[in-house]
Amino acid sequence: MNMQFKLHSIIVSSVVALAALTLAGCGQKEAVVEALPCAPDSLTRDFIDPSGDVISLGLDGQNISPLINGFFTASTPDGVTVYRYAGANDGSAEIEVVPGLSGLRSAGAMSFGVIPVARQGGHIELVNEKGETVASLELPEGEITQCDPYFTEGVMRFTTDAGGVGLIEPSGKIVVEPRYSALGLPDDGILIAMTEAQAGESVVQNFSVIDLNGNEKYTFPADVTPVNLEISEGMVAVRTRTGFALADAKHSGNLIQLPSGVRSVDELSSGLAVVSAGRGKKGVVRTDGSPILDMRYNQVRIGSGGLVAYCDGAKWYIGSASDLEFHEVGGATLLTPAPLQEKKNGFDFVARSAEGFYLVDSNGERVGTTRLVNIDCGRPIMNVVNTDYPRSTTTVELPGEEEWTED
């Protein structure tokens, strides 16, 4: 199928001019987390910044998103509201509702000058910092039912009601048509694409590497299957006939075979891979296959910039893969790495202890002194924007006269 999909963009001269100014003013910025949601008690919802300072929001009882590029969302049973953050005064946030962006069904985050939002009963829209619609994501046939919460490397994945996945630009232009069953996130201009084809009673999955315009760069052989759709620094974890390996997605899939004892690859990030020998025993290798930690730890986490955290017995340690100097994180019962969107602004790890939650730096030292009952270090990419707009392709077939019977 090679059907051309086009979006119905709002092309009004004043709106386009405002959108251009907004994009120029905000800068072509990736999503960067500036503060994380935290909870000093069971009711209060505030922010904590990378220095460990807690900022009061005054939005108790609401679910708060991370602060990304100066904007965040708050959710209540009545819907989602988008707020602009204007700084803090004596520990209290100065915030305001973005005009027209309250009571929403769902909303994403600010990146590349726009926020994807879905109003109740409406299409997904891209809005600028003033709440003005830059593009409405509509198709001539079918509906766009969900999209990522923000743009990555200038593109964003979207899904149609027919199950197709494609890529869109911040202007609302589709750059990769929704012809794929799934797409991974971009990594330095490339991403993994999956298609499915019926083969008798079975469904065959095919994987390839494409660029941001949908041009195919490499196709995985039938006996080489990606573990997931993640690329990290050009490398992909794959399963082969002889075990597990790392494939160089930028150089025609050249394979680096992992040791025969590896039973799974759990994570791939920052030039490192968490590998498992089964029975919960995990270790870490570099993407050239050289070992860092033997596969004997129950819990291992990879942070940004080559940071590694592992649990040995009841104690957690953190250190850099470059020098292998690890420091104990005293009192920690769990360490969660900050995703890349958070690391860009200085977050490293979030620790949980018997006394509560706190931030941890790259040396395993506590950041900040406020006792918190929670710090939300979740990955924002999981919070997709979705719509409840009626699907135009949905039809109701009534039975013909010959199908009606009388008792």
Strand content: over 45%
Helix content estimate: under 10%
Number of helices: 2
**Rg, please?**
23 Å
Distance between the termini: 46 Å
Report the uncertain regions.
1-26, 392-407
Report the biggest beta sheet as strand number plus sense, adding barrel if it closes.
Answer: 5 strands, antiparallel
- Please state the average pLDDT score: 87
User: What spatial form do the alpha-carbon principal axes imply?
Assistant: flat
How many strands appear in the DSSP assignment? 38
Report the oligomer. single chain
Class computed from helices, strands and strand pairing = mainly beta
Q: Can you tag this structure with a few keywords?
A:
407 residues; mainly beta; five-stranded antiparallel sheet; 2 helices; 38 strands; flat; disordered C terminus
